[in-house]
Design brief:
The chain is mainly alpha-helical. It is 49% helix and 2% strand. It is globular.
Length: 330
Amino acid sequence: MSIPAFATAMLLVGAPANSDGMPPEVSAPVGAPTVSDHEVPASTASTVAAEPPLHATPAESTPPADLPNPAPDSATNPMDPNAIVVTARPPAPPGDPLQSVNAKSFETIQTVDKAIVGPAALTYKRTVPGEVRSGLRNFLNNLQEPVVFLNYLLQIKPGKAAETLGRFTVNSTIGVAGLVDVAKKRPFKLPRRPNGFAYTLGYYGVKPGPFLFLPVIGPTTVRDLFGRWVDLLVLPWAVGKPFDQPAYAISTVIVRGLDERAEYDERLRKVREESTDPYATMREAYLQNRQAEIDALHGRHSNAVNPAPGLANPAPPNATIFPDMSGQDL
C-alpha cells in the first residue's frame, strides 16, 4: 500500500460520525471509479419493482363481504338530490274535478258536525216532542208545494201539477196550515213529491256540472245550486212578507237542519264507521240518487243508492250537516 492511501484510510477510521450515526461523505479521489445513486444491480432492481409501495392504493378493489353494498345510483336512491320521486295524486274522478277541495271541506264539516251540530240535533230530538217536530216538518214541506207545482208545469206534467195543487189545498185547510199531512191519507192518497228547478233543468238535459261540497248546503252540483237559488226566490217574490225576511230564512234552515240531522243520525254514524272513504260514499250516493230522481221524471226507473246498506232508506243527501235551504230534498 502506498503512503497516501494508508494515510487516507487512517483519517477515515478516526473521523467523527454525523448526527445520524453515519460517517461523513468523502469525495472520491480523482480518477476513482464512481457508482450513480440511481444505478442499482440488476438483481436488486427486479426485487424493488415487484413490491408495491407501502402506501399505494389499488386502482380497483372489491369491498369485504361483511360490508353493505355501495349506495345505488340516483335513479333508485330517494335520498339522492338528483333522484326523481313521483308524488302526483291520482286524477280526480269524472264529475268531481275539485275533489281535493271538496274532501277538505267535507272533513271540516264533519268535524263541526261531530262537535256542535250532531249533539245539538240530538238535544233537539230529546227535548222537543215527536208530534211537534212532525208538525213543523209538515208545515215547512207544505210551504214548498207551490214550488213543486210550478216545476211540474214547466215539465209539462199537468196531472202531477194538479195533484200537487190539491195536496197543498187539503193540507192548508183541513191539515191546519200544513201542520198535519192529511193529503197523504185516505181518501185523498196524495203523496208528497219533491220537485224543484234543478229537477226541471235535469229533465231538459242540463248536465249537473262539477260536484261541490259546501258548508250549510252540503253535497250539491253547479246545476242543483243554481236551481236551489231559483226555488228560494219563489215565495219571497210571489208572496212577500214574512217569506222575504232574514228571520224566516234563518229559522227555517235551523229547524229543518236539526230535524233532519236528528232523524238520520244512526245512518250517518254507520257511514262514518263502516265506509273506507265516507266522502266518496256520500258523493256517489248523492249523484246517483239525483240521477235516479230525474230518470223517474222521464218514466225510467233506476235504483237509488243507500249509503248505509244496513238501514232501510237512504239518508237525504243534505242531511250530512244541514239540508237544502229551499226545503226540497235535492
